[in-house]
């Protein structure tokens, strides 16, 4: 995955539910100056395809989870990544997803992110449970991953707060992130182990393509 060169041969365009959480404080300092609050970066992202295809391979409904552990900021590299793909995925869907995520198919953000990864474990076929519900979304890979999002509460009224991070000219991963927190955020697979409840989380719609 590291340093993968883009060899664009198959066009793709896909729209996805994007459910992310990490070890940063609410808001995530990486969104502003690119450096994680705690120095290191440990995060989980659950995805579900809404619509789209890689060539003639339909990616709608495809579920997968990415777990990442970086010793510093993402752009500084040396990331260890674990990729889980739902057991219902067809072999051609897994091949298409792998081409996208390793940067070999070109297109952002993965063409850039691939060069930051030193070690990729997967794709690992496993059952992925996912509930897409905005700031109350959740996903799990039984035995490995457990994530449950929750709205941030107003300290005075106790009511749910709605806070967005918006990139008017387009963001790197998404354009409009609905910011929340986590009731649960746990990852356990070999050397990639962390747990950060009560930290940053967001729900967004992501769009990936290697087409202009």
Pick out its properties.
212 residues; mainly beta; 2 helices; two-stranded antiparallel sheet; 7% helix; disordered N terminus; 13-stranded mixed β-sheet
Secondary structure layout:
Blueprint lengths: L11 E11 L18 E14 L2 E2 L4 E8 L8 E8 L4 H11 L8 H4 L3 E10 L2 E3 L6 E4 L3 E6 L1 E2 L6 E2 L1 E4 L9 E14 L2 E4 L4 E10 L3
Parallel strand pairs: 5-6
Antiparallel strand pairs: 1-2, 1-15, 2-3, 2-4, 4-5, 7-8, 8-9, 9-13, 10-11, 12-13, 13-14, 13-15
Which class of secondary structure composition applies to the elements? mainly beta
Mean pLDDT: 92
Radius of gyration: 16 Å
Low-confidence stretches: 1-6
Number of domains: 1
Biggest sheet character:
13 strands, mixed
Report the helical percentage. under 10%
Percent of residues in beta strands: over 45%
Quaternary structure annotation: single chain
Overall outline: globular
Helix-strand topology string: EEEEEHHEEEEEEEEEE
User: Treating each run of at least 4 consecutive H or I residues as one helix, how many helices?
Assistant: 2
> How many distinct beta strands?
15
State the separation between the terminal residues, measured CA to CA.
Answer: 24 Å
């Amino acid at each position: 995955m590291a340093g993968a060169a883009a060899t664009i041969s198959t066009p793709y365009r896909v729209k996805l539910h994007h459910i992310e959480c990490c070890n940063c404080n609410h808001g995530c300092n990486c969104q502003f100056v690119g450096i994680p609050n705690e120095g290191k970066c440990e995060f989980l992202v659950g995805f579900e395809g809404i619509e789209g295809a890689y060539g003639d391979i339909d990616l709608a409904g495809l579920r997968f989870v990415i777990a990442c552990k970086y010793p510093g900021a993402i752009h500084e590299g040396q990331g260890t990544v674990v990729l889980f793909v739902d057991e219902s995925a067809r072999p051609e869907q897994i091949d298409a997803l792998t081409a996208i995520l390793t940067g070999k198919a070109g297109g952002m953000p993965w063409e850039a992110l691939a060069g930051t990864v030193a070690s990729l474990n997967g794709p690992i076929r496993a059952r992925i449970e996912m509930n897409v519900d905005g700031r109350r979304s959740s996903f799990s890979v039984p035995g490995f991953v457990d994530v449950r999002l929750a709205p941030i509460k107003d300290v005075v009224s106790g009511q749910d707060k709605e806070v967005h991070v918006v990139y008017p000219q387009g963001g790197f991963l998404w354009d409009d992130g609905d910011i929340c927190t986590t009731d649960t955020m746990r990852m356990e697979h070999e050397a990639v182990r962390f747990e950060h409840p009560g930290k940053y989380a967001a729900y967004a719609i992501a769009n990936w393509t290697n087409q202009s």
